[in-house]
Design goal:
about 450 residues, 16 helices, elongated, single chain, 4 domains, four-stranded mixed sheet, six-stranded mixed sheet, Methyltransferase, Cobalt-precorrin-4 Transmethylase, Domain 2, Heat Shock Protein 90, alpha+beta
Length: about 450
């Protein structure tokens, strides 16, 4: 015991002169329980001087009762009388609580350094939420109004067949629907979760009106009416992905791009796989609590995919441009999306979106918060149809090349156009003056990119 007396008070060691300080002892017991456990030695001054104390027949029993009665949930520490030299002390050993939610006199305490302090309301609430996050999570909650007749058995069997094909998932499509949803953790004790309804209900919007995807094609570059087209897609969230993507592809033109000297290739202005990835992320990771819905906005110069709510904590938009963990706001939905290869759960989806856009000859997409919502914006290079009309055929070829390959040097330009160096210099100089391209690098490494 002297090895502890030789030490100073710390995060897991406290000295008390007597049991007369029992209220402070109870608080420290709760604080140790909420932190990393610890030891209280009664009969020692703050400085570590052994003052000793009288220990009667009921001293330890009374102290134990005071600790048990005034803690919630009740704490039963190990309490023993010991002798240090000729003096008696009481040693109280407290283990760390598994959930760290022990109250003393109805209040939460924690240990910071050698002090016992009261937790803030926000900190205590955060711990409560963390403890109960599984049952509080939207996709994991029971949908009280739903019954098994609301599930579309055909949808479940189609999903299982797809999961078997895509991931070699071992639940065969012939399995009973109830058993399948149990094994997917989409049902609890015979009741359906919110995730089960969003994924497989005949009419999910009967339970969640907000579970829609709203798509609009605006005229021009501002979100003003009238719409050129507008559709609201309901149904289950799996089919919403395909419907929303089809809407976008209907409203972005196909263009002919030059590949090499003579070969031409027709493709969309934006990479469809990148758009689909953004739509999947918005529907899978959205916050389904608010009444707003996922929105896809198509403009003349960009496409915006509005998720519902912020990113799952602790992610921020800038994290998505770097390596980052996959953090699922809705793990049950995410798992089902993974099984049909909608997502990969490696945190690479946004990196793939960036790379697909760059490979397609487009600028890097923008990830940002707008009015509390996470938004992905796909952009074109700012070369309008009006600007293109004023260009020579050679200059149009250069612009098309840059959209696909991102940069060009004079040698590439000579090969592309089949003209002299002086002609290339004139064409590029004119593009620079028009503000369409800019020069980067020096000397032999000079090349040109779209502004």
């Amino acid at each position: 015991m002297t090895k502890f007396i030789d030490k100073k008070e710390s995060e897991n060691l406290e000295f008390k002169k007597s049991v007369g300080e029992w209220k402070e002892i109870v608080k420290t017991v709760a604080a140790f329980s909420n932190t990393n456990g610890g030891r209280i030695i009664v009969g020692v001054s703050k400085s570590g001087k052994i003052v000793g104390m009288e220990i009667g027949k009921s001293t330890i029993e009374d102290l134990t009762n005071k600790i048990v009665v005034n803690t919630d949930p009740k704490v039963y520490p190990k309490i023993a009388a010991e002798k240090i030299g000729e003096k008696n002390v009481i040693v109280i050993e407290v283990n760390e609580s598994t959930d760290k939610l022990v109250l003393a006199f109805g209040r939460p305490f924690k240990r910071v350094g050698k002090s016992t302090i009261r937790m803030s309301k926000d900190e205590y609430e955060r711990i409560i939420i963390e403890k109960h996050k599984e049952e509080l999570r939207f996709d994991n909650r029971i949908c009280k109004e739903a019954c098994w007749e609301d599930i579309d058995d055909k949808k479940v069997k189609q999903f299982l067949k797809r999961a078997e094909t895509e991931r070699n998932y071992d639940i065969k499509p012939g399995i009973a629907v109830k058993e399948a949803l149990d094994r997917l953790d989409l049902a609890k004790n015979g009741s359906l979760t919110n995730a089960a309804i969003l994924l497989f209900a005949k009419k999910p919007q009967r339970f969640f009106l907000q579970a829609e995807t709203r798509c609009a094609r605006f005229k021009g570059t501002e979100p003003v009416k009238p719409f050129l087209d507008m559709k609201i897609f309901d149904g289950d969230i799996i089919e919403q992905v395909d419907k929303a993507l089809y809407f976008v592809l209907e409203h972005i033109p196909m263009k002919v791009y030059l590949v090499g000297k003579a070969e031409r290739e027709e493709k969309y202005e934006y990479p469809p796989d990148a758009i689909r990835e953004a739509i999947v992320n918005a529907i899978c990771h959205r916050d389904y609590e608010p009444s707003s819905n996922v929105q896809i906005r198509v403009f003349d110069d960009r496409i915006e995919v509005w998720g519902c709510g912020a990113l799952p904590e602790p992610l921020i938009p800038d994290d998505l441009k770097k390596k980052h963990k996959s953090i699922l706001r809705n793990p049950l939905i995410g798992n089902c999306f993974f099984l049909i290869k909608f997502i990969e759960k490696w945190g690479t989806g946004t990196n793939d979106i960036i790379n697909m856009c760059l490979d397609f000859g487009l600028p890097e997409p923008i990830f940002e918060y707008i009015a509390g919502d996470f938004v992905v914006t796909f952009r074109k290079y700012h070369v309008s149809e009006e600007m293109l009309e004023k260009l020579s055929e050679r200059q149009k070829k250069i612009v098309d090349y840059l959209k696909q390959h991102k940069e060009i040097n004079r040698k590439d330009c000579i090969n592309l156009l089949g003209v002299s160096k002086n002609t290339v210099i004139r064409e590029i100089s004119d593009l620079q003056q028009r503000g369409i391209v800019k020069r980067i690098g020096r000397g032999k490494s000079i090349r040109y990119i779209l502004k």
